[in-house]
Design a protein that fits this description.
The protein has 137 residues and is mainly beta. It is 14% helix and 47% strand. An eight-stranded antiparallel beta barrel has the order 1-2-3-4-5-6-7-8. Strand 1 and strand 2 form a beta hairpin. It is globular. The protein starts with a helix and ends with a strand.
C-alpha cells in the first residue's frame, strides 16, 4: 500500500512539473507589424531569436544597425543579428535579454507562448512594452 501511494504521489509530481514547463519556442515567427520573420533556435545552452528576413523593402545594401549604442556596430546588416539572447525556461515562460535595433536599446525579455501566439515583453528599468508574434507557416 505504501509503495502504491508513493508511486501515485511521484506520478502526480511528475505531471505537475511537466505542466509547468514553458511552451516550445523554437521556430519561425512573424512580427506583429508584419515587417520581419524571426527565427528562434538553440545558441549555446539557451535559445536566441535572430532576424531571419524582412518582408518589406530594405534600403540599397540592406538595413543597418544605425542606432546601436556601440558605434563600431552601426554599419552591420540587421538580417542575421540576434535580437533575443540567453532565453531559458522561467516558470511557464522564458526569460533572457533583448535588443531593439529600432531604438538602439537593450532590455530584459520575458516570453510566453500560447498556441501559435508569442508574447514578448521587454523592460528597461520600470518601463515595459509588449509585442505579439505569430508562428510563421
Amino acid at each position: 500500500m505504501r509503495f502504491t501511494l508513493a508511486a501515485i504521489a511521484a506520478a502526480l509530481f511528475a505531471t505537475g512539473t511537466a505542466a509547468a514547463a514553458p511552451s516550445p519556442l523554437a521556430g519561425r515567427w512573424l512580427t506583429d507589424d508584419g515587417k520581419a520573420v524571426m527565427e528562434i533556435a538553440p545558441c549555446g545552452a539557451a535559445l536566441c531569436a535572430r532576424i531571419d528576413r524582412f518582408l518589406v523593402a530594405e534600403p540599397a545594401g540592406g538595413a543597418r544597425d544605425t542606432k546601436n549604442p556601440d558605434k563600431a556596430l552601426r554599419t552591420r546588416k540587421l538580417v542575421g543579428i540576434n535580437i533575443l539572447t540567453g532565453l531559458k525556461p522561467d516558470g511557464s515562460g522564458w526569460a533572457g535579454k533583448g535588443y531593439s535595433p529600432e531604438e538602439g536599446r537593450h532590455f530584459n525579455a520575458a516570453v510566453t507562448v500560447t498556441g501559435n501566439k508569442l508574447k514578448l515583453q521587454g523592460c528597461v528599468a520600470i518601463f515595459c512594452r509588449t509585442v505579439g508574434w505569430t508562428r510563421a507557416k
